[in-house]
Design a protein that fits this description.
The chain is α+β, with helices and mostly antiparallel strands. It contains four helices and nine strands; from the N terminus they run βαββββαββαββα. Strand 8 and strand 9 form a beta hairpin.
């Protein structure tokens, strides 16, 4: 997986999300905050919404806020949680969020925890074999068959 280093606009995005997380963190309701920066430079934030039966991820809230604003060309995305010492740290997106990124920001870069180092990767790299309807492919899926056995 190709990784990219961060630039000053990534640090600005991180700090915006960190401010939201520190202001609104609630161990029962709001454990993750996320943000997206669009191609216009605008930052849209989102907050995890937790309840007993369902959770809405912060990444989906941030994507929704960008889409609702009409400024939906997402360039960069990040999600943060608190570590055991209470520091805001980058957390990697779950599978549901990765699928949303495939639908709404496949071309975006995502800030990830790369074994302790924060770097950016292409959204598409996080879910290389994502689910698609057959009409969304430019290939035909063949019938499965067993490989020829060799003696």
């Amino acid at each position: 997986m190709h990784v990219n280093e961060l630039d000053s606009s990534d640090i600005e995005l991180f700090e915006s999300v960190k401010s939201l997380l520190l202001a609104r963190h609630d161990a029962e309701k709001h454990v993750v905050a996320a943000g997206v920066r669009t191609s216009t430079g605008q930052i849209h934030l989102g907050l995890h919404l937790g309840s007993r039966r369902i959770n809405v991820c912060a990444e989906s809230s941030a994507i929704a806020n960008a889409v609702m604003s009409g400024d939906d060309q997402i360039a960069t995305m990040v999600a943060l949680c608190l570590d055991d010492e209470g520091r805001a740290i980058v957390t990697n997106p779950c599978g549901v969020c990765r699928e949303l990124m495939g639908a709404y920001c496949l071309e975006a870069e995502v800030m990830i925890d790369d074994h302790g180092a924060v770097r950016k990767v292409a959204s598409a790299a996080l879910m290389p074999q994502r689910w698609m309807f057959p009409h969304e492919n430019d290939w035909a899926v063949e019938e499965p068959h067993a490989a020829k056995e060799t003696n």
